[in-house]
Every structure is written in C-alpha cells, then in structure tokens.
C-alpha cells in the first residue's frame, strides 16, 4: 500500500523557517515526480512546488519563489520543502504528492495529474 507521510509542520513566527519532510513507502519512488500543495482555510488547494522524476526540472508558485526550496533525499523516497522567510499567508495544511513519471511544466500545477497524496501537515505562521 502506497503511503506518503508528511512531517515537520508547526507554529512559527513570521520571518522564521520550517523544513517539511515527506516519506514515501509502498513502492519505489525513484521514477516519480514529487511535490507539495497547500490548502488554507476556506480556500482551494494550491500548487507550491514540484520536482520532476529525473530531478531535472523544478517549479514553484510565484508566491513562494525565492523563499521555498524543494529537494529530494538520496534514496528518492523522501522529498523536502525548506521554507524560509515565512509569512502569515503561508499558513495552510501542506500536502505531499507524487506522480509516476516525468511531468511537463505546463501540467505541474494541476493537482489532477498526481496519483498519490499524503494526509497533510499543518503550518501556522504568526504575525
């Protein structure tokens, strides 16, 4: 059974940093593109960042560019999201996601193309 388990969320003051982790199990994820979405209260789920299966392509939402960095562990079954200079508007539940194979930049922000989702981890940024 495929599982994506997020960790690392919490409460942080504006300007602070958090590092989210997502551990994937149940199959080998070396051929999967992996990424992060988030959902704030009363809002739709939105794209945050993604790393292609080969590691050759990354994409970020404009709202997080320059502040967030997505990376992958050596074993390829773990993906991280380093979040710096956090703002209150970054407050949301953050979800890890994965899709078998490569994805194009045009489709990266589309949550419908992803095969697997974690349960989410809460990030709260206080002002």
Write a structural description.
It is a single chain. The chain has 127 residues and is an all-beta fold. The chain contains no helices and 11 strands. It has strands spanning 3-7, 10-13, 18-25, 32-39, 46-51, 58-60, 68-72, 78-83, 92-100, 116-117, 121-126. Strands 2, 4, 5, 6, 9, 10 and 11 form a 7-stranded mixed beta sheet that branches. It has a 4-stranded antiparallel beta sheet with strand order 1-3-8-7, with no helix packed on it.
Spell out the blueprint of helices and strands.
Blueprint lengths: L2 E5 L2 E4 L4 E8 L6 E8 L6 E6 L6 E3 L7 E5 L5 E6 L8 E9 L15 E2 L3 E6 L1
Parallel strand pairs: 2-11
Antiparallel strand pairs: 1-3, 3-8, 4-5, 4-9, 5-6, 7-8, 9-10, 9-11
Task: Note the main attributes of this structure.
127 residues, 4-stranded antiparallel sheet, 7-stranded mixed sheet, globular
Q: Note the run of SSEs as H and E.
A: EEEEEEEEEEE
Q: Strand-residue fraction?
A: over 45%
**Morphology:** globular
The major pleated sheet works out as: 7 strands, mixed
Number of strands: 11
Helix content: under 10%
Question: What Rg is obtained from the alpha carbons, in whole angstroms?
Answer: 13 Å
* Assembly category: single chain
**Overall average pLDDT:** 94
* Measured distance between first and last alpha carbons: 40 Å
Low-confidence stretches: none
Q: Enumerate how many helices there are, as a single number.
A: 0
Structural class: mainly beta
